[in-house]
Write a structure and sequence with these properties.
Strand content: 5-15%
Shape: globular
Helix content: 40-55%
Distance between the termini: 21 Å
Number of domains: 1
Amino acid sequence: MNLNFRNKKRLQVINYIFNKLNEQELSKEFVIKLVYLADKLFLLKYGCTITSDKLMAFKRGPACSQTLAILDMDKDHVEDKEDKVIDTFKNVYDVTKRPHTKKVHTLFAKNLPDNFSSLSKNEMDIIDIIIERFGKLSYNELSNYTHSFNEWKKHEDALLDDTIAEEIDCKDVFEDKTFLNDELLSKYIDEETIQNSAAIYYGDF
């Protein structure tokens, strides 16, 4: 999967969430947590992620690295060094930033497209499930939920401030049982599905 297609998918995931929630304004943290949740559920069900991102642990919780860089318009850490993906993002969203960190806080959709040609039906179905389960929660409720994941808690003591990030080992994601204990999400995965997905991810099938 080439870089342009990966970034196109990442942008379409963000746009899909905005369209499905029928919102013109969302916090960056809320969006990135929904993206992480969708990537995690897709990984547990199909053995790969939607965004093809590295999964990272930050003080504020787990996140998908490149999607977060796009949301932050972070030219130093985005894969697209020619900044085309940032320019595309700017055409769709205005942002406000925190004064002290200069990081993006809120996204305002100004020209929201409804083209999701890079997303498969399975990918959109998983995002729909995540939006159904988490889309109406408050940010604090969503944050508390993602902070319960073992793959994040494993790094918690090292995450002293917002400048520190540690890569999440997908082995820890496959071993986390949170989704299996979730009344809605447990309808879509079970132990056998997760074992098969891990085998696909590691090439052991």
